[in-house]
Specification:
The complex is a heterodimer of chains A (468) and B (744).
Chain A (H helix, E strand, L loop, with lengths): L4 E5 L2 E5 L8 H8 L18 E8 L2 E8 L11 E4 L1 H4 L7 H8 L9 H11 L8 H7 L11 H9 L6 H4 L2 H9 L6 E3 L2 E3 L3 H10 L3 E3 L6 H8 L5 E3 L10 E4 L2 E5 L4 H8 L4 H10 L2 H6 L2 H6 L8 H6 L3 E6 L2 E6 H4 E3 L2 E2 L6 E8 L5 E8 L10 E10 L2 E10 L6 E2 L1 H7 L6 H14 L10 H19 L5
Helix pairs in contact in A: 3-6, 11-12, 17-18, 18-19
Chain B lengths: L12 H6 L15 E7 L5 E7 L1 H4 L4 E5 L23 E2 L5 E7 L2 H10 L1 E6 L6 H7 L2 E10 L2 H6 L3 E9 L11 E6 L5 E5 L4 H12 L6 E5 L14 H14 L3 E4 L2 H7 L6 E9 L5 E13 L5 H9 L10 E10 L13 H19 L3 H8 L20 H11 L2 H14 L3 E14 L8 E8 L5 E5 L8 H13 L6 E3 L2 E2 L14 H26 L6 H10 L5 E7 L4 E3 L4 E3 L3 E14 L5 E11 L6 H19 L31 E6 L23 H12 L15 H17 L1
Parallel strand pairs in B: 1-12, 10-11, 14-15, 18-19, 25-26
Antiparallel strand pairs in B: 1-5, 2-4, 2-6, 3-5, 7-15, 8-13, 9-10, 9-12, 11-20, 13-14, 16-24, 17-18, 17-21, 22-23, 24-25
Helix pairs in contact in B: 6-7, 9-10, 10-11, 10-18, 14-15, 15-16
Chain lengths: 468, 744
């Protein structure tokens, strides 16, 4: 058992143990390493000022992705290489993207700038010459209050030959250092990172109030904003076999620690309407850290993936001491944030049947701001049609109650009816009666009721031929 | 001129992109530094029945716990001194500081906050403008600007319309929250590092609260991670708290707000509720206007009187109104004192007027642009404001004409109409609005600045002014002006940290005036150095290089330092008559926006925006373009997604970026054309114009475009719309009109 984490920062190895392991990465960088280029603004992953690159071993190389360091904890980063804004400049020379930012007036007050620079550096790990839409997607998670983004976008588009991080920090020596320790499980106080599933299950059984922290995109906020301190923390990062997405017949199998970014890239071709929602789901920083299983286990009624999983009749594979249990997603939620999950069980896989030929799938997310915003209302609809008639319709709404809901009465009403504007208008009124939303900061009850009604009309208008 | 008019990069750009730029929280701590924080009122209005800080004081790791009793004086305020730093008997807003704590660690701080025994009796709060009007809870007297015979002209008007314009507040959302670090020094002195737009205000207030001389305090502001007005008066409070700790403990003291605290406790842009009655002819020409402005000032005056003055002097906007009465009343409510925010009342006055132009057009079934053109200030006639200042050098008619052509307004308006007739799913709207923004502080004495220029033996130059750098590039502009006036390479000129030690009695870097005032003062200093250098050069036959010239001047005992001064000429203002010349000139512009609305969800997207401005001859076109674009997007946030939501008890619910939504990169209009006309401004330094605030008001075209879209479904009524036009607000209007249509 290893009592320390091995974390590289800008090429330098650090062994971190004890209480230090429980700090956020941003605080560690700023106040222990005095690398103050990384800024802390919101401490909830919603502004991107703390963006750094996290490199992890993939095959024989390190692959770097941008994440929000304010809601990453050092205990998550065993075996990772962190590159901060200070680490991007070597010998005082600006890299091309920094130079473009200077030239194009991409920085005004400068407080968001290191975050933008690192998010852009993350983008240039995957592309040499991004298009404008790539830039927008890559910088969705970074807020700037000064520039209005134009100069930043221009800078990104002007960059020629940004070096890869690999060129600044060769992977080989870092990987060698990681390889030397990675097969050894880590235990620091109440944190445990096993290297096999059995040990993880045993730990969870012995510590029933364990929180599995994978991406920490929500856990991080509980901790920074509410001071939440779990009894024990379990990381699945060291366990092989949970990080892949596979197609099995007509279903997609998603491993328990598959990130939202991985999930998004695997469904882009398979389910285009889902890819659209995933685009607005969150920032690259969040999608690179958060997992689909985490989104499910977190049980928020406005989780953006859930209505989709509901209408597709997704099932969860739960592994515990007694073996594997399969639970339909709908039955997994017993009440607000109450799960059908035993103390020793872990979500090891999610099985998602894919839409069939002739199925019409539409997903909706309404939020105050189109991108990087928590939903006010979400919906998924899956229709099977036969000529002018609706064969069957599955409808799931989020944000209208303590859990995501299937709209049984509305579905029943629609089944067998004519596919027409009038049908859907009537269905909207029935849907309105099936839900009891509340008023909160994201919207009043009346707004949600109206959306619940209107979204069915919207579905009709956009699925009928010729509509825009 | 060599540098002025060129795209010199921001002087801190390199530090920004490498992370080397230092902000207050980036300064390394000394080993004995203390952490400063405060206990604030959890209620909007409450009586303090009992307060016991002894249990907190007794805790390990606590260096001091302070109440108002520990201050020499407990009153502050930039205009009227009416605000306590720490609540005494009554708390008048949620977030009001009551107790200041100095701790060795965050853990000790948390324990001490819990240990403070605070017994509060909750009182009924006033939380809205309507409540304040009903309770007659006001700050100061109602003020007036009057011209002609508005009542008589109203009676004779061909048509009369009445309405109300309502806007919400806006959080500054500077990325760097309020922060200060204070070092105690010799002679009972303090050195205060603060993220502030107004070092002199800090120096003045801290001296007063602690009962020491201003000369014992040095305030420095290296840079701010954004400010937008939020650090004009309200950076004072945290700095004063840390100063209290540093002075009593003789240890360095640092206070850094987290984002949530910052949003909870600081003031915002003022919500307004403006009632109007407008008389006009069949062509849309306004003959009379009565407008009653009510602002929500919050619990104390702060800058509200000046904000109201600017709202009142901008209620005419770009339009000539012969008979007019503008009334301005500030409501006192139990919210954090509302404060300066880019535009400073201008946006609320201007939006009211642009809304009136839209409504007249709807009423007369005319194109709103035609109504605006009929009312637009003339170049030679119809060119005096309600307060009788002449709109000199007026480019508004030209800006209207050029933008109308450039953005293809008429064709697109027809296309919008056609689209709305055919689309079952979406609605479009378009609007072309204008801005005329007065430049100068409304308060005359604030329009002064000084500068210190030192030329060193090697020919390098340091410049210090009262201008503070918040990203707007004022240091870069001053650097360009200095380099050109002295005739030295720009690389040899450094703009120094703003410090009250170098420049005394400075005004806030505010009112878009930073470069105008401080740039002029720097040019004044440099001109005098240059003229002495010219004499030296002449004695040497004009052959000396810059470096040789400086050496020669030194050896000939010619002074190589100078202090410059500038006071804006001509200004004058009198509240008793509501008359005067409060502004040196006006920055002007026109803007056209087109929006697309989802009829089912109320979701809105800005498809295209065109901005055309008269910003004089920019000192730095790249910097100014950044101001235009950035301000427009910030203004777009105010009119669309930035909604402050409160509980019934006055607790702010949207207090972080998760719930408070400023524009994101995806919100930038797909087509976004920003430009300016070539036009000199002979009354200001280098022919330039102030540019910080005016383009924010260009985004009012977005709000008007939403209103225009709603007009297509409003069944002939004048569409109603609050600001911000969130998707929730839009959908609620669409639903009302759809129901009305169904009944009809």
């Amino acid at each position: 058992m290893r009592p320390f984490l091995l974390v590289h920062v800008n090429g330098v190895a650090h062994r971190i143990g004890g209480a230090h392991a429980f700090q956020t990465l941003s605080r560690y960088l700023r106040y222990e390493q005095r690398a103050t280029g990384t800024k802390i603004v919101c401490e909830e992953g919603d502004c991107g000022a703390c963006t750094v690159l996290i490199g992890r071993a993939e095959g024989d190389t390190l692959r770097y992705r941008p994440v929000n360091s304010c809601i990453q904890f050092l205990f998550q980063l065993d075996g990772a290489h962190i590159v901060t804004v200070e680490g991007l400049t070597s010998g005082g020379a600006l890299t091309p993207l920094q130079d473009a930012m200077v030239r194009c007036h991409g920085a005004q007050c400068g407080y968001c700038t290191p975050g933008f620079v690192m998010a852009m550096a993350g983008m240039f790990e995957c592309t040499n010459k991004p298009a404008k839409d790539d830039v927008k997607a890559a910088l969705t998670g970074n807020l700037c209050r000064c520039t209005g983004y134009e100069s930043i976008t221009k800078a990104a588009l002007e960059v020629e030959q940004q070096p890869r991080i690999e060129q600044l920090y060769p992977s080989e020596p870092i990987l060698r250092a990681i390889d030397a320790v990675k097969r050894e499980p880590v235990r620091i106080d109440n944190f445990y990172k096993p290297v096999d599933l059995e040990s993880a299950i045993a730990f969870k059984r012995d510590h029933p109030n364990t929180v599995i922290v994978q991406g920490a995109t929500d856990f991080g906020v509980w901790r920074t904003k509410r001071g939440f301190t779990p009894e024990a923390v379990l990381s699945l990062e060291g366990i092989d076999g949970l990080a892949d997405v596979r197609i099995d017949g007509e279903a997609l199998l998603v491993g328990g620690r598959v990130t939202l970014a991985q999930f998004e890239s695997s469904v882009r071709e398979l389910v285009p309407s889902l890819a659209e929602i995933m685009d607005r789901f969150g920032s690259p920083q969040i999608k690179n850290a958060g997992t689909l299983a985490g989104n499910i286990a977190n049980a928020s009624p406005i989780a953006d993936s859930l209505p989709f999983l509901y209408v597709m009749h997704a099932t969860l594979e739960l592994t515990g001491s007694d073996g594997i249990r399969v639970v339909p997603i709908r039955d997994f939620y017993l009440g607000y944030k109450k799960l059908d999950l035993r103390a020793d069980e872990i979500i090891t896989r999610i099985r998602i049947p894919l839409p069939k030929d002739g199925d019409t799938l539409r997903l909706y997310k309404v939020s105050k701001r189109s991108h990087l915003d928590i939903s006010t209302f979400t919906a998924a609809m899956l229709m099977r049609r036969n000529d002018g008639k609706i064969d069957s319709m599955r409808i799931a709404y989020g944000g209208v109650g303590p859990v995501v809901l299937r709209l049984g009465k509305t579905e029943e009403f629609l089944a067998g009816r004519a596919y027409s504007r009038e049908t859907f208008a009537e269905a909207g009124e029935i849907a309105r009666g099936e839900i009891a939303p509340i008023s909160d900061v994201r919207g009043a009850k009346e707004f949600r009721l109206q959306l619940a009604e209107n979204v069915l009309c919207r579905f009709y208008e956009e699925t009928q031929a010729g509509a825009r | 001129m060599k540098y002025v008019g060129t795209d010199v990069p921001h002087d801190s750009a390199r530090g920004h992109v490498t992370g080397e730029s230092i902000y207050v929280d980036d300064m390394p701590p000394l080993p004995n530094e203390l952490l400063v924080d405060f206990v604030w009122s959890p209620y909007a209005h409450a009586r303090i029945r009992a307060l016991d800080v002894a249990p907190a004081r007794a805790l390990h790791g606590i260096a001091g716990v302070y109440t108002y009793r520990d201050l020499a004086h407990n009153v502050l305020g930039p205009i009227v001194q009416d605000e306590p730093l720490l609540a005494e008997d009554v708390c008048t807003f949620r977030g009001q500081p009551i107790v200041v704590i100095a701790a060795e660690s965050q853990a000790a701080m948390n324990a001490a906050k819990r240990a403070v025994k605070l017994d509060l009796e909750e009182l009924k709060p006033i939380l809205t403008i309507d409540d304040a009007i009903a309770a007659e809870s006001f700050i100061g007297e109602t003020r007036y600007i009057r011209r002609g015979d508005p009542a008589g002209a109203m009676e004779n008007a061909e048509h009369v319309l009445e309405g109300v314009f309502i806007n919400g507040g806006q959080d500054h959302f500077y990325l760097e929250s309020q922060a200060a670090l204070v070092y105690p020094g010799e002679f009972d002195g303090l050195t205060v590092h603060s993220s502030t737009q107004h070092p002199t205000e800090l120096q003045h207030v801290i001296a007063h609260l602690l009962g020491i001389d201003m000369s014992q305090i040095v305030v420095q502001s290296k840079r701010m991670g954004g400010a937008f007005g939020g650090k004009e008066s309200q950076a004072t409070h945290p700095a004063a708290m840390a100063s209290l700790v540093a002075r009593t403990t003789r240890r360095p003291a640092r206070i850094v707000f987290d984002k949530d605290t910052d949003m909870h406790v600081t003031g915002k842009r003022h919500p307004f509720q403006n009632r109007y009655r407008v008389g006009f002819t069949r062509t849309g020409e306004i003959t009379s206007l009565l407008v009653d402005l009510y602002s929500d000032g919050g619990a104390y005056a702060d800058l509200s009187p000046a904000v109201m003055a600017r709202a009142m002097t901008h209620a005419d906007n770009a339009y000539y109104i012969p008979h007019i009465e503008i009334r301005g009343t500030i409501c006192r409510t139990n919210t954090p004192p509302n404060t300066a925010f880019r535009g400073f009342g201008g946006p609320q006055g201007v939006a009211t007027m642009e809304n009136i132009q839209e409504e007249i057009a709807v009423f007369l079934k005319k194109d709103p642009l035609d109504v605006r053109r009929v009312n637009c200030y003339g170049v030679d006639t119809r060119n005096t404001t309600p307060y009788e200042e002449i709109v000199a050098n007026n480019t508004l008619p030209r800006l209207f004409t050029e933008l109308e052509e450039r953005c293809d307004y008429r064709t697109r308006r027809d296309a919008v109409r056609a689209f709305n007739e055919s689309s079952a799913t979406h609605l479009k709207g378009i609007a072309l609005t204008a801005v005329k923004f007065g430049i100068s502080f409304n308060t005359k004495f604030l329009n002064q600045a000084n500068a210190l220029v030192n030329v060193y033996l090697d020919g390098s130059v340091q410049v210090s002014t009262g201008a503070t750098e918040m990203g707007q590039g004022v240091n870069t502009k001053i650097r360009q002006l200095v380099a050109d006036t002295l005739g030295v390479a720009i690389e040899r000129v450094v703009v120094m940290t703003t410090s009250t030690e170098k420049n005394n009695n400075t005004s806030a870097t505010a009112a878009s005036s930073g470069a105008d005032l401080n740039g002029s003062a720097a040019v004044d200093a440099c001109s005098r150095i240059r003229s002495r250098l010219d004499d030296v050069q002449e004695r040497h036959g004009g052959k000396l290089s810059w470096e040789e010239l400086i050496k020669a001047a030194y050896h000939e005992r010619v002074p190589l330092g100078e202090r410059g001064f500038y006071a804006t000429p001509r200004l004058d203002w009198d509240w008793t008559s509501g008359r005067g010349t409060p502004f040196l000139y006006f920055t002007m512009g026109t803007s056209c926006s087109e929006v697309l609305i989802d009829r089912f969800t109320g979701e809105m997207k800005v498809l295209r925006a065109d901005v055309l401005m008269d910003i004089g001859r920019p000192i730095n076109p790249g910097v100014d373009r950044g101001q235009l674009v950035g301000a427009f997007i910030q203004g777009m946030g105010w009119v669309t997604t930035e909604e402050l939501r409160y509980t019934e008890g006055g607790e702010l619910l949207s207090h972080s970026p998760t719930t408070y939504k400023i524009p994101n990169i995806n919100d930038v209009p797909e087509i976004f054309n920003v430009d300016w006309i070539d036009h000199d401004n002979p009354v200001n330094v280098a022919g330039s114009k102030a540019v910080g605030e005016p383009p924010l008001l260009m985004a009012i075209s977005v709000w008007c475009a939403v209103k225009n879209a709603l007009q297509f479904v409003a069944n002939g009524d004048i569409a109603q719309l609050r600001l911000p036009a969130t998707n929730e607000e839009i959908l609620s209007r669409l639903t009302v009109y759809a129901k009305k249509a169904a009944i009809a």
